[in-house]
Amino acid sequence: MTDALHSQHTNTFPELLQKAGCSVVVSTYQAGKLILLRPDAASLNTHFVSLPKPMGVAYTQGRLSVGSGAQVIDYFNMNNVGPKIPPANTHDSAFLPRRTHTTGDIDIHEMGFDADGELWLVNTKMSCLCTLDLHHSVVPRWRPPFISGYDLTDRCHLNGLAMRDGQPRYVTALGTSDDPAGWRHDKAFGGMLMDMQREEFICRGLSMPHSPRWYRDQLWVLESGAGQLITINPDNGTKTVIAEVPGFCRGIDFIDRYALIGLSQVRETAVFAGLPLTQREQDRKCGVWIVDIETGQTVGFLVFSDGVQEIFSVQVLPWRYPALLDATDPLVSSSFSIPDSALAEFVAPDPRLLRFETALSHHRRHEFTQAITAYQAILQDEPEDVTTRYHLGVALSDTEQWDEAIRHLDQVTARQANHAEAHNSLGHAWAGKLNFEQALTHYDAAIQADQSYATAHFNRGCVKLLQGDFRNGWKDYEWRWKMPSFKAFNCPQPQWQGEDICDLTLLVHTEQGNGDALQFARFLPLARQRCKKLIVVCTEPLRLMFSAMSCVDEVRLPGNLPQDLFDVFCPIMSLPGALGVELDNLPTDLPYLRVPDQVVVPSLPASQRAKIGLVWAGSPTQQINHHRSCPLESMLALTRKTNFNFYSLQLPVSANDREQLAAANVTNLEIDLVSYAHTGKLALQLDMVVSVCTSVLHLAAGLGVPCVALLSPYADWRWMDDNDHSTWYPNTKVLRQSSSGDWDELMTRCAQYLGTQFD
Predict the structure, then answer these.
(1) Is 50 exceeded by the pLDDT of residue 200?
(2) pLDDT value of residue 270
(3) Quick check: 623 pLDDT over 60?
(4) Where in the chain is the domain with CATH 2.120.10.30?
(5) In the UniProt record, does the keyword Transmembrane occur (predicted)?
(6) CA count, 13 A, side-chain hemisphere, 394
(7) How far is CA 162 from CA 14, 53, 56, 272, in A?
(8) Cα first-last separation, the chain
(9) Which residues of the chain does CATH 1.25.40.10 include?
(10) Strand order, beta sheet including 568-571
(11) Which ranges of 281-401 does DSSP label H, i.e. alpha helix?
(12) Closest of 76, 685, 647, 589 to residue 324, by C-alpha
């Protein structure tokens, strides 16, 4: 189990996109993401972009519009920016945010462009279709004839919009009520399809219809409550079932003879109770299904196995590998689209500045060799350029050339003694050399130069924690909330600092990675002893694990929480500081985690051989870091010891990885790793888990499963500076690389250790 959102797909999915030269954008308001599905050789690349409650998505002529919460965001394609996005020369297009229109909270559902390029959107709360202009939040343009007037009460749950011949023509709704939220009274079979032009019903009695589309001279509809793709004759309302799919279907687009359909799992709530789908499908899926509209057969699919439970829109884009940039991406501020007539009047940039910007661009894209070469070329001509020398030192440090980095950064501080950033980078370089006292000296100098330098405080805290100085380390570690990369928990209640809360309700929320949450769950029993009630807010993959802890009174998922739910809060990684935890009272009893009894997983076959679980890579963002991820080829060296049975606990697993696992006789458990509780129950059937620094390692160790932690020489502070054992997990053997990046030698030692334990 890794900390990202995960998916599996059939080989036919990327094949279809590759042949069509296109990609797909999917919205999921539940997860707060836009998801780009892009073919990448024989695999499918899934790229996630965070947005508040994205729902409706529409595309025309290089413009991608997204209904996101109370606004519509317009992204425009700039083809020339695509090749600049890392990895370079990979993307064939780039959508940059250019315009945001605030609509207010109208619950935007489907959207579409007419022949004139005007955007129409379904205003569900007002039960109407509307457009946008500069002077108003929205401009209502049409409402069903049974809706007597505009308000914000969602009378019929208008949701779907189909364009025909360049004009809005067909709509769907979940009811025909004119009363506030009246559609809920007959939600299971009260749905309708209407012809706007005629202002007549085409079909009624549908089960939660969504996503009408006019394609190939036919009217297509998703009857979501039945899990069916249907066609409806617009003249007489005759309904024909084309295909059944294993989920609540919503969002559809077409590529040739294939329909790409969004599927949601549908949570068991009053809204979805009593639907034909929930009675038919017990194992409902979330993902995108490919259906042959000529045969009704499913020919491919993508399934989300973690983090995403609901899909709203599915939109095909006519580019194979597009990028979608966040508003904070540096390329957004440095990319311009202007008329050709104005380009002729632009003056050439300053060559010196251009050289530096080029070097900096390489550095930002992690093209370190090019960046270092470019910085060095500048310094040959301008050896007194302190800024360039500082960035050269940072780039050298990024590539673990510690001594060279220190040499250049020392020159910077010799010229500017109060260069806080240079001292902070020197601290990083000395820590890389495992000289932590020198690192602390420079972190202290950085803080002396800038008392509010949050990154230096945080880095100093990490070194102190690594050394076992918990008292001072926890204090500095709290500076993480002032760093740009950390998003604080937003609420009016105060953060608990360790004061008496015996008559108060404490809310503890997870932060950073899921592995951190699993590691720091050991402090929850101590926190429960101090308060009247303990509530934990965590991500869905962790929910079952925290629910199984007897000290936790209630588990909530992130989102809008009632104001009176709790009195004080505490981030989970701030608990040890509030509790006064030091090295001599660190809770290390195992297990402190347990798996709920209701979790069901397959039983692994009985065997006289030891069962060994393998995890070789962290989340996709960590996999570029050779400190945190091991090449699968290197880890499979362990399987040469044939007297063990090996199991993969890795998620996700690429098609190439699956082939390698099969060739090495490693059983791939990926399909059963649907939550940390499921992963944990499988881990409990193993004799040992061998893993790089991932959440699965913390999960297995916390459950009491013997583990081997495979670490780099510069492992995270959580592993402290122990030689071959873990202070936090007495059941875990720590093996560190002799030299950075040398996984093969480490696997040789790991194989020897396994031999001593089980041979």
Answers:
(1) yes
(2) 45
(3) no
(4) 32-334
(5) no
(6) 20
(7) 27, 22, 12, 24
(8) 28
(9) 356-480
(10) 554-556, 531-537, 501-509, 568-571
(11) 330-334, 340-343, 351-364, 368-381, 386-398
(12) 76
Across residues 552-570, what is the average pLDDT? Answer: 91
> What does the alpha-carbon distance between residue 406 and residue 401 come to, in Å, rounded to a whole number?
9
* Predicted pLDDT at 365: 79
Cβ–Cβ < 8 Å for 541, 676: yes
Q: What is the pLDDT of residues 574-615, one digit of tens each?
A: 999 999 999 999 999 999 999 999 999 999 999 999 999 999
Could you read off the pLDDT of 227-253 as tens digits, one per residue? 999 999 999 999 999 999 988 999 999
Closest CA to 390 of 374, 405, 402, 371: 405
> Can you give the pLDDT at residue 330?
80
Axis-axis angle for helices 386-398, 368-381 (nearest 10): 150
**Spatial CB neighbours of 139, under 8 Å, sequence gap ≥ 6:** 130, 131, 132, 133
Give burial (CB, 10 Å; 0-12/13-18/19+) of 469. Answer: middle
Q: What angle, rounded to 10 degrees, do the helices at 436-449 and 420-432 form? A: 170
> Can you give the pLDDT at residue 674?
86
Amino acid code (one letter) for 249: C
Say which amino acid occupies 154: D
Q: Is the dihedral of CA 714, 715, 721, 722 positive or negative?
A: negative
Long-range contacts of 677-682 (CB under 8 A, 24+ apart): 677/544, 677/545, 677/548, 677/595, 677/596, 677/599, 678/599, 678/601, 679/1, 679/649, 679/651, 680/545, 680/593, 680/595, 680/599, 681/595, 681/599, 681/601, 682/601, 682/604, 682/613, 682/647, 682/649
Residues 428, 441 contacting (CB under 8 angstroms): no
Alpha-carbon distances of 484 from 333, 453, 455, 476, rounded to whole Å? 18, 11, 9, 16
- Third-level CATH fold of 356-480: 1.25.40
Q: Counting beta carbons within 10 angstroms of the beta carbon of residue 98, is it exposed (0 to 12), middle (13 to 18) or buried (19 or more)? A: middle
* CATH, range 501-585: 3.40.50.1950
| Closest to 591 in 3D by CA, of 648, 518, 646, 662 | 518
Asked if residue 157 lies in contact with residue 191, where contact means CB atoms within 8 angstroms, the answer is no
The class level of CATH for 610-758 reads: alpha beta
Query: Are the C-beta atoms of residues 59 and 317 closer than 8 Å to each other?
Result: yes
Q: How many Cβ atoms from other residues are within 10 Å of residue 557's Cβ?
A: 12
Using CA atoms, how far apart are residues 406 and 397, in angstroms rounded to an integer?
8
Q: What is the second-level CATH architecture of the domain 32-334?
A: 6 Propeller (2.120)
Which residue ranges does the chain devote to CATH 3.40.50.1950?
Answer: 501-585
pLDDT at 624 over 50: no
Query: What pLDDT is attached to residue 340?
Result: 80
Give which of 756, 589, 595 is closest to 684, Cα–Cα. 595
Write down the pLDDT at residue 422. Answer: 97
pLDDT for res 490: 82
